Amino acid sequence: MTADRAKVIQPLRVAQPHQGFRRVFIRDMVLPCSIGVHKHEHDARQRVRINLDLKVAEGPAPLEDKLSNVVCYEVIADSIRSLVAQGHIHLVETLAERAAAICLQDSRVLSVLVKVEKLDVFADTASVGVEIERGRMEIAKYT
C-alpha cells in the first residue's frame, strides 16, 4: 500500500452504545407559500407540504418529564411557519435548506431529513419537490 493510499483510508465509524438518540418528527405540515420562479407563482400563494425528521441526541440526564429536556416540535413548527410567512422564495431547495438550518439551531439535533413538496403544480401528480438530509457539519455551507 502506498503512503498516499494510506492517507485516504480511515477507520470504520463504530456506533457508540452509550449514546442513544430519538427521532422527533413533524409530518405533513401544509402551508400556503409564495414560492416558485414563474411569474404566476409570484402572484399567488400555493400549498407546500413539509416533512421533518430530526435525529436528536439523548443526554445522560433523565427526562424528568420536562419540556426543557427535549427538542420541542412546537418551537420548530412555529419557526417553519414564520419562515414561510417571511416572503417569496424561488426554489423548494432553498426552503428545504432554510428549514434544515432552523432544525439544527438546537445543538441536540444531530441531523435532519427535510422534504418539501409543492402540491398544486401538475394536475396529474400528487406533488413535486425535494428531499435533503443535513447534519451539523453540512449546514454551515448554507447559512
CATH evolutionary superfamily: GTP cyclohydrolase I, C-terminal domain/NADPH-dependent 7-cyano-7-deazaguanine reductase, N-terminal domain
Helix content: 25-40%
Number of strands: 4
Strands of the widest sheet, in order across it, are 1-2-3-4
Beta-strand percent range: 25-35%
From N to C, what is the helix and strand string? HEHEHHEEH
User: On the 0-100 scale, what is the average pLDDT?
Assistant: 88
Instruction: Return residue spans where pLDDT drops below 50 for at least 5 consecutive residues.
Output: none
| Structure class | alpha+beta
Principal-axis shape = elongated
Rg, rounded, reads 19 Å
Provide the CATH top-level class: Alpha Beta
Instruction: Please indicate the count of domains.
Output: 1
Q: In the CATH hierarchy, what is the architecture at level 2?
A: 2-Layer Sandwich
What is CATH's topology name? GTP Cyclohydrolase I, domain 2
Ends apart, CA distance between termini: 40 Å
Task: Describe the protein's architecture and organization.
Strands 1-2-3-4 form a four-stranded antiparallel β-sheet. The protein is of the alpha+beta class and about 140 residues long. The chain has a single domain (about 15-140), classed as GTP Cyclohydrolase I, domain 2. It has five helices and four strands, in the order H-E-H-E-H-H-E-E-H. The mean pLDDT is about 90.
Descriptive terms for the model:
143 residues; alpha+beta; GTP Cyclohydrolase I, domain 2; four-stranded antiparallel β-sheet
